[in-house]
């Protein structure tokens, strides 16, 4: 069982389902509204960065690429 103190929400979707989408398309925005979008989980001596979206997806803004690359750098230190 995972200890909740080992989980840190880094980013969250807006609570208003009407504001979840900035560009492109979204299916069922009410399902993600107010939920975690980016989470850090500590497990033993390591940690994992969990994305609730595809930071590498071709339709995403290039603003999401630093999230991916920073998470790779973070987990190697």
Describe the structure.
The mean pLDDT is 84. The chain has one helix at 65-75; strands at 7-12, 36-43, 46-51. It has a three-stranded antiparallel β-sheet with strand order 1-2-3, with no helix packed on it. It has one helix and three strands. It has one domain (4-75).
Query: Could you tell me the strand content as a percent range?
Result: 25-35%
Radius of gyration: 14 Å
- The ordered string of helix (H) and strand (E) elements is EEEH
**Main sheet specs:** 3 strands, antiparallel
Question: Which strand order do you get reading across the main beta sheet?
Answer: 1-2-3
| Class per helix and strand makeup | alpha+beta
Count of discrete structural domains: 1
Which geometry do the CA atoms define? flat
Total strands? 3
Distance between the termini: 26 Å
Model regions low in confidence, pLDDT < 50 over at least 5 residues: none
The overall pLDDT, averaged over residues, is: 84
Q: What's the tally of helices?
A: 1
Oligomer: single chain
- Percentage of residues in helical conformation: 10-25%
């Amino acid at each position: 069982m995972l200890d909740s103190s080992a989980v840190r929400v880094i980013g969250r979707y807006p609570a208003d389902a009407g504001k979840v989408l900035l560009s492109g398309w979204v299916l069922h925005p009410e399902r993600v509204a107010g939920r975690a979008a980016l989470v850090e989980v500590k497990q033993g001596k390591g940690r994992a960065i969990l994305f609730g979206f595809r930071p590498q997806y071709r339709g995403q803004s290039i603003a999401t690429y630093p999230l991916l690359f920073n998470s790779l750098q973070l987990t190697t230190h």
